[in-house]
Amino acid sequence: MIVEPMEPQKPGQIPKAPQPQKPAQPTGLYLLVVTKAPDPDAVAQIIAQRIELPFDKVRKLVAMAPATVAENLTPLVAEDIAGAIRSIGGGAEKRLIPSSLPCPIHKDQRGRGVCQVCGKAICALCIKEAKGSPICPECTGEATKIKIPFPWFRLVLIILLIGSAVTAYFVITRERAKFAWDRPYKLAVVGFMQELPPEWRTFIEQFDQDTGGQYVDLKNHTLPDMTGWFQREYQRYGGALKMPVNLTIFGPYDVSQPPPPPTIEGNFFDRYLKYREFLTYFKNFNKEHQLNLDGYDGVVYVQFVQGKFDGFLESYASRRDRLGLANCYLDPSLVETDIMIVMHEFTHLLNAKDHYDAQTLPVYPQGYVQPFEEPLYPQKYAELMAGRIPVDQSNAKEIAALRDLRLGIYTANEIGWITDEQLKKFIEEKKSPPPD
């Protein structure tokens, strides 16, 4: 037992008992926050009577609980009101106003916050010394005792953002990737039609057990003609492969419903759902007809439509999914136009862009086979990704045969037949490979 030393006493003096020290009174000013008010009238009455505020004003604030209903209160008044509210089943608490107190460490600074360990006011210098943490310098050693909840939401959000960025990077990289042309491109062409008339089968298909399926027309032009066309154009640009495209043809197949068109209108979610529906159609198509096309570099589905030519039908291609849909008229007089449409959509799979404007006129110079020719008009050939022969600045005509079609230098660069340096040289020298 430790005994406190007592002051020496004078004779006859009664020693004084040690007086207990009074606890330090809280200082500073406080906010009164009502967190719960089952009986708003009773809570408002308590507050209005003690700090002489208009009852109606206090009643409106209390009704919005949790809400701050009073400020700049002394600690005793704030605690008295909070205790009275709690005694009738309500909820209230007092909150220190940091700026009402000087910083206990830096006397010339006003409070900017409250230490999470001891509850004292802390100033901007304290926060800076604690490297941004709301802890005073005296309690820095106690900071490890504070259990700060792990920010799971932020972590999940960061992971989702990183995942989205990585996915977008690979999608864009895949879309922009060019075929290396170190081997022939393996292309599958799959024909189909809704309610195919029997009399048209001789137009669409000539089947031989030895050679496999082959599309033919009444003029003996066939879809495999496109492989010869690509071979000639590829070699015109100095390609080393003997045959750049290996073509395999499947069909034609009967379908009960045409494919749903992927829309380019509406919001992102609507477009995404439509496109997924479009892909699902062909996934089910392959399953129904037992087609395994996994070994091909790209697939172009050809939908034959009955009727006379009334402008080009809208076709689609996805570089990312290496899938195209060519809508073609079932008309013997339009066979070579149909082949051009299939070739056009196939070239999209190789990373080529459209080179025509909103009026379907070839765009200069990308949509011209001889963009440096003088005089410029009329052009002799149609560029594959423009589709029409420029007659003058405002007019263009359709091709009569595949011999009217060529692949321009800009498209050749987009699909990897010539390098950026070669394209730049063609432009600087204002010449391109002879089209004939």
Descriptive keywords:
alpha/beta, Collagenase (Catalytic Domain), three-stranded antiparallel β-sheet, disordered N terminus
Question: How would you portray this structure in words?
Answer:
The protein is of the alpha/beta class and 436 residues long. It folds into 2 domains: 30-145, Ribosomal Protein L30, Chain: A, CATH 3.30.1390; 185-429, 3-Layer(aba) Sandwich (Collagenase (Catalytic Domain)). The protein is 31% helix and 18% strand. The protein has helices spanning 40-51, 55-63, 75-87, 124-129, 152-176, 201-204, 225-236, 268-288, 335-349, 409-414, 420-429, and strands at 30-36, 67-73, 91-96, 113-114, 121-122, 185-194, 206-208, 212-214, 245-255, 298-305, 316-318, 323-329, 382-383, 389-392, 395-397, 405-406. Strands 9-6-10-12-11 form a 5-stranded mixed beta sheet, covered by helices on one side. A 3-stranded antiparallel beta sheet has the order 2-1-3. Helix 1 (40-51) packs across helix 2. The N and C termini lie far apart (116 Å). Residues 1-9 and 206-221 have low confidence and may be disordered.
Whole-number total of structural domains: 2
Mean pLDDT: 78
Rg is 41 Å
Q: Termini separation (Å)?
A: 116 Å
Name given to the CATH architecture of the largest domain: 3-Layer(aba) Sandwich
What is the SS-derived class? alpha/beta
Low-confidence stretches: 1-9, 206-221
Q: How much helicity do the residues have?
A: 25-40%
Largest sheet properties: 5 strands, mixed
Question: Could you give the order of strands across the largest sheet?
Answer: 9-6-10-12-11
Number of helices: 11
Beta-strand percentage range:
15-25%
Helix-strand sequence: EHHEHEEEHHEHEEHEHEEEHEEEEHH
Shape: elongated
CATH topology of the largest domain: Collagenase (Catalytic Domain)
Just give the CATH class of the largest domain: Alpha Beta
User: Count of DSSP E strands?
Assistant: 16
